[in-house]
Amino acid sequence: MRVKFDRDTCVGMFQCVAEWDAFEKDLNDGKADLRGSEEEAEDVFVVDVPDDEEFDAKFAARVCPVDAIEVYDDDGEQVV
């Protein structure tokens, strides 16, 4: 499973931070950061999700009020 995070879309509600500890607050920018991620494109970050954190990653994507987080299965299909 893989997560794609569009940091430019993020509005800093930090609901993702409460749901998955891979996200952390960046109070300087007023946006979340995705730890351990790689920048795929400008302000778009991706990270592989450990098997035991898949539920938390999906929930973080579901609670994002601006849909800045997308979750993809191992076949590349978007699941959230």
Automatic annotation (TrEMBL):
Protein's name according to its UniProt entry: Ferredoxin
GO molecular function ontology, one term from the record: metal ion binding
Pfam families (alphabetical): Fer4_15
Protein's organism: Halorubrum persicum
InterPro entries given in the database record: Fe-S_cluster_ET
Keyword Hydrolase annotated: no
SUPFAM superfamilies attached to this UniProt entry: 4Fe-4S ferredoxins (SSF54862)
Keywords (A to Z) from UniProt: Electron transport, Iron, Iron-sulfur, Metal-binding, Transport
